[in-house]
Prior knowledge:
The complex is a heterodimer of chains A (112) and B (115). Chain A is built from no helices and twelve strands. With 112 residues, chain A is an all-beta fold. In chain A, strand 5 and strand 6 (46-52) form a beta hairpin.
Amino acid sequence: xxxxxxxxxxxxxxxxxxxxxxxxxxxxxxxxxxxxxxxxxxxxxxxxxxxxxxxxxxxxxxxxxxxxxxxxxxxxxxxxxxxxxxxxxxxxxxxxxxxxxxxxxxxxxxxx
Amino acid sequence: xxxxxxxxxxxxxxxxxxxxxxxxxxxxxxxxxxxxxxxxxxxxxxxxxxxxxxxxxxxxxxxxxxxxxxxxxxxxxxxxxxxxxxxxxxxxxxxxxxxxxxxxxxxxxxxxxxx
Lengths: 112, 115
């Protein structure tokens, strides 16, 4: 079975600070993708960043980057220069067996 | 280019009533998913379609739940004899398997409240 675990239910940082969200996963698949999705309050879930498991290089998207440790099955998200608009639920997800499996989420609040 | 559309956005019903949600995926997407999300939790997989074929159903999908995608375009999710435990956000997502990444594009969800 595929599982995704996010151990930080809530985090809060000041605007412009850097914050790292943690995620661990388990899968028996050799080829898979990992994702971070953002769900703002009362709005739809959108993709933040994607990582192919076969790529050693960590993905980056502007202020968002990941630290992918395949052997440790760890996939953390770093948000640099955080902005008020980054306030949202963040979900780590694993693509396996034709569907996405999500973690429990981390509620991130950016304070002015 | 329109995204995934879900209707209704909110539904309040009494226990025992039937409800139906509709999802219109992105037009070129051949795969459609339904997820359920309860407050403060991550989405849980319910079922998915490849074109009009329903390929997998979760154990979460009791026999009171039925989903269809009759022409491989829009999909409906019906819940019969609703129970208070059915209260949740029902999310629809779609993708094109040609992308090869497994990335899903989500709608805004249909929130169900069962009184």
